[in-house]
Amino acid sequence: MSVRNLTEKHFEEGSNLDSRENLAQSSSQLGSAPHNPFSDDAEDEMYGSGSYSASDASLIHHDSDRSPVENSRDVSDYKGYYSRGPAGARQSARSGAAAAAAGRLGRGSSSASQAMPAGLPSGTSLNSHLGISTNDITAPPGFDRYPIVGGSRVTSMAVPPGASTSHPQGPSNNNSSASITSSDPFISDQDFSPFGGYPASSFPLLLDEKEDDDYLHNPDPEEEARLDKRRFALDFKHMDKRAAGGYISFLLLFLGAIAVFVILPVLTFTGATIHSHPQTITILSLYEYPQLSAIRTSLVDPDTPDDQKTHEALDGSSWPLVFSDEFNAEGRTFYDGEDQFWTAVDIHYDATKDLEWYSPDAAITANGTLQLTLDAYKNHGLYYRSGMMQSWNKMCFTQGYVEASANLPNYGRVMGLWPGMWTMGNLARPGYLASTEGLWPYSYSACDAGITPNQSSPDGISMLPGQRLSVCTCDDEDHPNQGTGRGAPEIDIIEAETDTTIGVGLASQSLQIAPFDIWYIPDYNFIEIYNTSTTVMNTYCGGPFQQAVSAVSTLNTSWYEFGPDAGYFQSYGFELINDEEDGYLRWFVGDKPTYTIYSKSLHPNGNIDWRYLSKEPMSIILNLGLSTNWAYIDFNSIFFPVTMSIDYVRVYQPSDAVNINCDPDDYPTYDYIQSHLNAYTNANLTDWESAGYTFPKNILTGNCKSSKFSLS
C-alpha cells in the first residue's frame, strides 16, 4: 500500500500527466517511502521500504468483473494508519485475506501485496494509476472513521462467516497471498461515506456493522446485567446538579401532595385541628366571645351588685343570694342545650289555647336584658311568635325569695297581652300536657277524695283526673318516692293584666293548688294585705282545673314599654317558707310586700285534707303570651312587635336551707323524668296514656295488696 509523506510538500504539477508516467513514478517511490509521523519505529520497520516490491504494490481494481477471494466472499481489507499495530491485526482478523496477510508478516512478506486488477501493467502502482501523489498533502488521507478500538468486545465491521486468521493463502501469479476486495476509496466502484470520511465500507450502514459504543444496536447483555443490578446506586453516584435539583423538587412535590390530599383531610375529618386555635363566634351581635364564654363557674352572676347579695326576710333574718342571672352578656341565645340554666322552648302552648308559637328565635339578650318579643309573624300555622324561657330540670329551688325585674310590654292601659314570670314543680314541664296531667296543680299528701277524679264531687267543682302520684300509691307501682304525695303546684311571681276602668296595669300574684276548697274560697283569716289602696284580693278564685289564691295590685304606667314616662323597670317577687305549721307565702312589688298567705289558710275543708305550701323543687318560667283565655285582646292598640325586657332573676334562700337542686333527696325528680322522657320531650302529647304510660294504682281505689301508706 502506498504511504504518504506528510513531512514534505508535493504539489500536483498537472492533472493532464500521462497516467503511465504517474504509475511508474509511484512504483519507483514505493521502495523509498518517507517516514510516517503517525507511526512509531516498530511500525516503520514492519511497513518499511524493504518490505515492499513492485509486485506487492499492485492492487486489484474491482469492477463488474472483479475476482472473488479465495473463500468466495467479498470483504474489506482497508489498511490505513488506524489499522496498523494491534488494532490493524484485529481488523485484519475480520477478513480472510487480511488474516493471510497477517500470517505473511511473520514470514517477512509484504502485507501490502495485493493482486492488481486486469488491464494494468505489471509493476504499476495503483496510486500512480489513479493519478494521486502519495506525497501530496492536499490529497485526502485514507481515514477510517470507525477504527477498531483496543480491548473492545464488539466490532464495527462484520466478520464473514467461516473466516479465520489461520486460513491459508493460495498461490498467486503476482505473489499476492489473497485476492480481496479493496476498501480504497479511490477505486471507482466504491462509494464515499455521505457523512464524511472514507472508505464507505468502514461506515456502519448495515445492521451487522456495529459501533464500539453503540449499545442500542450492539447490546452487551453481561454489562447491562451488571449495571442493572447497581442502577440506583450508580444513578445517585453520577447524578449532576440538575438531576439532583429535579429529584429534590419531585420529592418535595410528592410530599406536598401527600400533606394536602392525605394528611390534611385526615386531620380535618378527625377534628384534630379544632383545638389548635381558639375559635370565636358571633351571635346576632357585633360582639365576639370565645366558645365557652357562656359557661359560668358560679351560680351567682359576677355582674350582680354586692349590695344585692342579701335579702331581709319576714322574720328579719338575712338570706344570702344563691343564684342570679343579670343577662348582661350581649347576644345570648337559649336554644335547647345552649345554656346551663335556661331553655327557650319551641312549642305551641296549647294548655291555654295561645295564639302564638313559642320560638327560641324570640328570646335573646340585648342591652343588658333578656328580651322576649311578641310579633305578628306567621309560623307553624299560627300568626304570632313569641318567647318562653324555662329553667326546668336545670335550676330549681324549694323555698326562699325569688325576684325578677322587668319592663312590661306595650302600654299599661291596653289589655290583651299575657306577660308572666312564674314557677312550677319540676315533676311537670310547662307546655307538655302529658307530663302535667295528674300533677298540676296538686300539692297534697292525704289519701282521700282529694286524690280521686273530679274530687269525687258530682257538682263539677273539679275536672281534674285525680292525683297521679298520691301518698297511697300501691307498692311496685310507678312512683318517684313511695309514701309521699307528689305534684306540681304553681306560684306566680306576676301575671300582668289591665284594669280598663282606671286605665292602668295590674299585677296578678297567685298560688294555684289542688284539690280545691268549696267554691275555691280559702280561709281569708290567714291572708294578709299590706296596702289595700293598691292591692285587693282577686275576684277570680279559680275554676274546674285549679284553685287560685290571688291578689291584684295596680302598677305604674312608667313600668311599661310604651307611654309618656315609659321605659322603667320594676321588680316582682315572692318569699316562700314551706313549713306545715308556720309556713307562709308573701309577694312583693318592688321592695314593698303586697300580701301574704299563711299555711293555715289551706287547712282541711269538706272532704279534703291539708294543702301544704309547695315542698317540690320549683323551676322558673318567663314568657310573653297572647290568648283569649286570659283577657279580651285589643288588637288595634297593640303595636307589634312588643317586647318584655327582663333585667335579672335572683334567688335567695335561708342559710340553713340552701337548695337549688332539681333533684333533692326528699323530693327526687331525675330518675322519674328519665323513665318517662316521652312525656317530657313531646309537646304534641296531651295526656299521660298517649305517652305510653298508665296511672299508678292507689290503695284507695286500686285494690292494692300492699302500700307504704296505711288507711288506718
TrEMBL record:
Membrane protein topology class: Single-pass type II membrane protein
Gene3D superfamilies: 2.60.120.200
One matching Pfam family: SKN1_KRE6_Sbg1
Biased composition (Low complexity): 47-58, 83-115, 172-183
Intracellular or extracellular location(s): Membrane
Parts of the chain that traverse the membrane: 247-269
Keywords: Cell wall biogenesis/degradation, Glycoprotein, Membrane, Signal-anchor, Transmembrane, Transmembrane helix
Location, primary (coarse class): membrane
Region (Disordered): 1-183
Biased composition (Basic and acidic residues): 1-21, 59-77
GO biological process, one term: (1->6)-beta-D-glucan biosynthetic process
Biased composition (Polar residues): 22-31, 122-137
Protein name in the entry: LADA_0G14884g1_1
Organism expressing this protein natively: Lachancea dasiensis
